[in-house]
Design brief:
single chain; about 450 residues; two-stranded antiparallel ribbon; about 0% strand
Length: about 450
């Protein structure tokens, strides 16, 4: 007979203990994902910091170019997001049958390279096309003149960036992500060093060339370490033209819902940047810096979202609304964003002074917009955590509704009325609406069109 203490039951401690274990497991899985994402996001942040030494107009031009590339890379890496999960599943199936998974894994790697190549080529055409239209979109003539050479300098780095993302997914799918983080940190240091040197020689264009060289170096290092690894050499292949169509279709089919959420968001940020640029180069420069700060704070939320998804795929499916892992991810991300927000409010002006030493006007404006940026980072983080919940056509609809049917009109109305503050208020409105719609969707029981996404690794 079991003795129960008065006022206590066996169920008093078990949920707490289980929750603590889940907290630790989620944090342990999310930390490496977050660190790798931070290293990748910091690549563009480094560019903005280097341009910040040269004045308001170079920062504004860099912000436009980075906004264009962010839109393409968001769609491209989203289309690749199912690669690691598909590779993990292929290995598991082969082991269950007692067969070798080399052919299946190699086919998936080739499919990822093919998807990255096509997405990158189409994105490059879109970037160059939009770049040619900038004078018609109300952008300052001096900013446009500087944007063109910077765009051409960074364009060759787009395909290597996506190829690196494909190989990173491949290594994570095989449980071998170790060198990925190291390579990204080396790439970050290389970009900073080359950007500093080439920026002195060539100005802003040199900083763009440095980013392209760093992206090429990252791809080369990851390819070489994978091909020289005895356990990976048989499966790593860059011959995307030799892949099977079913593998390509599977990756695209699973990645499209992810791209349908992240693409509209990145395009929304680009529209906000264009509205800021139509106000003044100083407003665009301030927007570019604040966007990078928000992007850095976003990474813990994305890492936790993807870690929760990855862990959920290893658990038995249970009916019901938002899972315990989703709630724990929300709690941890909220804590991380809150700490970052407090840091920005307390020391944000000093941080901006480091990033914008040669752009005093942009520095002053960015400092006034900092509280709004903190609010935006909360909304953006909540949106990405909502994306990590069961997804499908309803998630894409929520993203399009919040960002484009609410956010863009709010930005176009509030921007001319209230200036830069109104633009960022419109940005917050769109992101908060999307987060609210995703949260409402996650409260329902997942149906056929609301399936949980496959496990994704950081790019």
């Amino acid at each position: 007979m079991t003795t129960v203490m008065p006022g206590r039951t066996h169920h008093d401690t078990r949920p707490t203990r289980t929750t603590l274990v889940a907290h630790r497991a989620l944090a342990a899985t999310a930390i490496p994902l977050t660190l790798r994402r931070l290293a990748t996001a910091a690549l563009f942040t480094t560019d903005i910091a280097l341009l910040g030494r040269l004045g308001d107009v170079p920062v504004a031009a860099g912000g436009l170019v980075i906004g264009l590339f962010a839109m393409v890379t968001a769609v491209g890496t989203s289309l690749l997001s199912a690669t690691s999960g598909q590779i993990t599943a292929a290995v598991a199936r082969a082991r269950a049958r007692g067969t070798c998974p080399v052919y299946q894994v190699r086919d998936l790697v080739r499919a990822a390279i093919a998807v990255a190549t096509v997405a990158g080529a189409m994105g490059l055409l879109a970037v160059l096309g939009i770049g040619a239209l900038l004078p018609l979109l109300g952008q300052d003539a001096e900013v446009v003149a500087l944007t063109r050479p910077l765009l051409l300098a960074m364009a060759p780095g787009l395909l290597p960036f996506l190829w690196t993302a494909a190989l990173s997914q491949y290594r994570c799918g095989l449980g071998r992500p170790e060198s990925t983080a190291t390579i990204q940190l080396v790439t970050l240091a290389l970009n900073a060093g080359l950007g500093l040197a080439l920026g002195l020689l060539l100005g802003p264009t040199g900083i763009g060339v440095a980013t392209t060289l760093a992206s090429l170096a990252a791809f080369g290092m990851l390819r070489r370490t994978s091909q020289r690894d005895d356990e990976l050499t048989a499966t790593v292949s860059l011959a995307g033209w030799r892949t099977s169509l079913p593998a390509v279709r599977r990756l695209v089919r699973l990645g499209l819902p992810v791209a349908g959420v992240h693409g509209p968001e990145a395009a929304f940020f680009l529209v906000v940047g264009l509205v800021m640029g139509a106000l003044s180069p100083v407003a665009l420069a301030a927007h570019a810096v604040l966007t990078q700060l928000v992007t850095l704070v976003l990474q813990p939320g994305v890492g936790l979202s993807r870690a929760a998804t990855f862990l959920a795929t290893r658990q038995p499916r249970r009916p019901g609304p938002t899972s315990r892992l989703d709630r724990i991810a929300l709690a941890q991300a909220t804590a991380a964003v809150t700490l970052a927000g407090l840091a920005y409010l307390v020391a944000g002006h000093a941080l901006l002074a480091v990033v914008l030493p040669g752009a005093p006007a942009a520095l002053a404006l960015a400092a006034t917009l900092l509280p709004l940026a903190v609010a935006v980072q909360f909304a953006d983080s909540a949106q990405h955590l909502g994306v990590g919940a069961p997804r499908g056509a309803s998630a894409v609809k929520a993203a399009l509704t919040g960002n484009w049917m609410v956010g863009v009109p709010a930005t176009l109305v509030l921007g001319p009325a209230f200036g830069p503050s109104g633009v960022w208020l419109g940005l917050f409105t769109g992101l908060a609406t999307t987060a609210a719609l995703l949260a409402l969707r996650a409260r329902g029981v997942p149906g056929p069109s609301m399936r949980r996404m496959p496990p994704m690794a950081t790019r």
